[in-house]
Every structure is written in structure tokens, then in C-alpha cells.
Design goal:
- The chain has 78 residues and is mainly β.
- The protein has one domain.
- The protein contains 1 helix and 4 strands; from the N terminus they run ββββα.
């Protein structure tokens, strides 16, 4: 299934730091719990790429290492 979101429904921003470089992600909800996009300019045009997404709250906890079981959890056990 493809990710879908509305450009008019941006729900926030996140600034990430990697070594001495910082970049900002645009955050959206849609048919996923959270969709993270990065944008850049090239030849005067703006482009967006999907940086990451979280399917649901359990997926988010797994990705952030917050799952108390210390391993992956399927949605059926949530």
C-alpha cells in the first residue's frame, strides 16, 4: 500500500543532527501513524523524499527502542 498524506496537514518538524550536520524533517500523518519527509533544492526546484514512516504506535516504539519486551512485537500481541 502506498503512503498517502495531505500537504495541508503538516503536524510538525523534527531537527536531526548527524555529526556536525543538521537537517529538518517535515512530519505528517496520513494512512500511517507518522510520515517523515525531507526536502532539498536542485536546479531551483524543490524535491521531497520519504525519510521514514511508522505504521502504528507499536512500530514507533520498536523503532525507538521503547518496547519493554526488548524485542520486536507483532501487531497481534499489542
Amino acid at each position: 500500500m502506498a503512503l498517502n498524506w495531505l500537504w495541508s496537514e503538516k503536524c510538525g518538524e523534527a531537527t536531526l543532527k548527524q555529526e556536525d550536520k543538521k537537517f529538518t524533517l517535515d512530519l505528517y500523518t496520513g494512512n500511517a501513524f507518522l510520515i517523515m519527509l525531507t526536502n532539498y533544492e536542485k536546479n531551483g526546484d524543490t524535491y521531497w523524499d520519504v525519510f521514514s514512516f511508522w505504521v502504528d504506535e507499536q512500530h514507533m516504539k520498536n523503532m525507538l527502542g521503547l518496547n519493554k519486551k526488548g524485542g520486536r512485537t507483532s501487531r497481534s500481541s499489542a
